Amino acid sequence: MRLKTMGRPAGAAGRKGWWRSAAASMALVVGLAALPAAWAVQPQAPAAAAPLQFRITEGNIENAFFQQGNVAANLLLNSGDKPRILVAFPAGNSGAGIWFEPTITRVRWTLGPVTGLTHTVNGHVLNGIAAQATVTGDTLVIKDAVLGSIRVLRDYQLGQGYAEQAAATPKIVAEPQLTERSVRWERPRLDGAPGYAIALSTNDGRFVREDGRIALHPDRAGEAVHLRIEASTGETPLTPFTDLLNDKAQPDARSRQALQFLSYREKFLAGSWRFDTYFGRDTLMSLRLLMPVLQPAAVDAGIASVLARLSPDGQVAHEEGIGEFAVLQHLKEQGKSSASPIYDYVMVDDDYMLPPVAAAWLLEDPRGRDGARAFLASKVDGQRQGDALVRNLLFVAASSEAFARKPVYSNLVALKPNAKVGQWRDSNEGIGRGRYPYDVNAVWMPAALRAIGQFLDAGLLDDYTTPAQRTRLRAAAASAGDWERHAGALFTVNLSNERAAQQVRDYAQQIGVADAAALKSLGNAPLQFPAISLDAEGHPVPVLNSDEGFGLLFGHPDAATLDRDVGTLMRPFPAGLITDAGMVVANPAYADHEVWPRFGNNAYHGTVVWAWQQAIMAAGLKRQLARTDLPETTRAHLTAAQTALWRVICAAGSMRTSELWSWSYANGHYRIEPFGAEGAHEDESNAAQLWSTVFLALPPPVGEGAPSCR
Fold first, then answer.
1. pTM
2. Which residues touch 284 (CB under 8 Å, ≥6 apart)?
């Protein structure tokens, strides 16, 4: 879902360390020793409200979340043979982490209390947390401590360019300050602003330099060592919402807690730990799905955060570079030190998401409609919200005109020149190396054009447009149907029943899963479905995918299209997308054999389950079932699909709020596996993901045959 920093290809994490210890088993227990007095640690003053605290364990990773006053932090402790301590802060998208050398004996952390704290470094106040924990396993040898931007920590975790960055900018490397009972790292931000710190201290272990590395030994071999972990940031804190949800929200404690941690008056965060800042697509899709249960101020704030980051020509910012990452980029590109935010506009899908999401709030929701004129007239940094919205609408209109005049593939919306990504499947293999994404052209563009028409009809654009601009917007809006019809036709994949069945047999054998149910579901009819993309020559890339869920949520397909497309997606994998572990987001069975390995269950956008894609499909089915113009046979098909989808959603249990997960297959069943927690996948999942909390607005269906969802 994310473009990897600086355009590097996705890859497996980290290099292997050379050091191995044959030392006796030991345990680290975090807690009693004080840090050196020079660090001036003071407990955080108690706030009026109790802190938000919750924990999520996925595989080998224990996550602890803390939010109170000026402190918001996500602490991760990695057990297993690749130990890690990492703390991420929404403030400045900053963090600090300690990576240890791989161990022979598996390490096991047990986390104790976590509290907020403030301390002063060189006269600057830093906000952070203190934690107590235990760990059993080998002597721990510190490989690296990395402090600064989460985007830099992300690169280090992925083994993507941290060494080069450190060589180019040595000041990002903090030197350890070592005593027998403690080790700490601290440094200012590169531009001299308050920076970052992380420290470990103990009363029953010793930090010792060995062969150029720092090792932690217990005082008594095989016994526990008590440690205190402290980490903090000097970046400007964000402002949490005190009143976020209304009484319609589902009583899912984990989702409520995750959403609270990720929601601020300045912006919504995409996910923690890896994306603790604004992402346009994540904000827009989460707002759309959560809209019924969010308080109006929260929806207004989310849309305003997107409008505030538009490019001069109206493109939606995908991601922001803030804090020290902005400083690094300005130094690299202009040779000057500046912390001004840098916005990334490489994605193309979010440009077309803004109009229908804004319309859903300002035109369709009574609460948003009541405040629409006031919202559009309000100003941020001297700019009216309505002026910003019109910039985006004019951008959409301009980019629609070529295909409206001549509906050929080369006039579709393509990925930007030299870009390998451009929509939510933003890993290099996400859309099968295609150039023209299906969702952008067949779903988002028509939805955006229809939203333009809605805004014009409501008269909300009159104060922000000239007559000539309104004429241009009206002409673009009128082309929505042509876009939907002609673009959809270009992406259509047709396979004979015999060819489809053979592909499923071969693919099932290749990946080691059963094919009987999948083959039976194909029946005797030929197969037709929308390709995930078109290649550079306009040929469909025949990967079955979940993006038709967008069409269900924002479109108005006819009955025949609903019967065909929903039926295809809901077949058992590997004929369709449904497994015991959930709905996978891609199925390459119908593509050429050389494509199959690129969409494995270890790939970020491969045959894996994304929580928000299941939510999109669930919301889309619910929306289609609310229609009154569908025949009973189609409604029956949609109801059956809804029941089947919710059955696998509910089966995921608490995992359903994670960013994504993988699966293993044994004894005829698919079993959920945390993505990245064991180090076997190309990346790792966020424990708290914004768009995975959207089930707060999606109650399971009720009635006969409806699944039980706890």
1. 0.91
2. 302, 306, 316, 350, 353, 354, 357
